Fold this protein.
Amino acid sequence: MDSSKEKSTSATAAVSNGCCISISSPSIVAASNGITQRATEEIEIPMPWGNVAGKWWGSRHKQPVLALHGWQDNAGTFDRLCPLLPDDIPILAIDLPGHGRSAHYPKGMHYYIFWDGIALIRRIVKYFGWEKVTLLGHSLGGALSFMYAAAFPDEVEGFISIDIAGPPARDHHKQAANLGDSIDRFLRYESLPESKTPCYGYDDAIDVVLAAYDGSVDLQSVEVLMRRGMAPAAERFNKDGFYFSRDLRLKVSLMGMLSLPQVIAHAEKIKCKVLNIRAVPGMNFDNIDYYPSVLEAMKKGSRKLVYHEIAGTHHIHLVNPERISQQVTDFLLDRD
């Protein structure tokens, strides 16, 4: 069925385990070339701490590719890539906890993003009753796809990782030196009253984000991300303008990172096919041996590992999606 012609007749859609997901009415999203169109629907998936929000591209009658965004981004990071992919491959792009429109963790809970995400994917897989999942991830999302494939090697068909090989290997001396400051910063963010929430005019907010990404994204890409990444100031803030909807505590979420030997050990557990797209120059990593070492370790057990180096920034999938869309399409359609 042509997904652009789907009609929604109910506020909810049944899933295979008999539960329901909240769904808004479908909308049509134009691709960056102004030609291709795909139906999308906003959904919410219940979790113990609140809802995880997502954007479902295409048919709800087929198991989708689960798409995972990068740190402090949101599901909108795939808004310019998804319209360039085959219409008959549905994609569910989610906002990770504390990001975009998803619920924040309650006070007292810390974000250990490279570990929490594995359990999150597992919850989503069990909720929908999926089998042999395919994952698509950028940056943090690529690292989470890697970790899930290592944790459940017989239950992943394949994953696509954009500009990351696995969880970045952290210098433990640097991590030890920063630990106390990180905890104090986390507690400050947690206790910040809502009246202190920074609010900006729309143009100023866009400028703040554009500067923060330091050349990795362009103006149009920031505007795409901020459709989910900022919201009008709530009345209780006693301010006008917009605020960034992601949880401030995510700024201090890099504790519990892995050493290179740990990353390598997980890489050797992966059995599924893998597509790794390295943007050039892309993201810089502390350890220059990290990327090739992890790829080499994955080759030991992976059914197939396809690697491409493509000119672009770390957000190549958002800024220049046409540069990688064919490689992603070929991988998703490959039945070998």
About this structure: The mean pLDDT is 89.
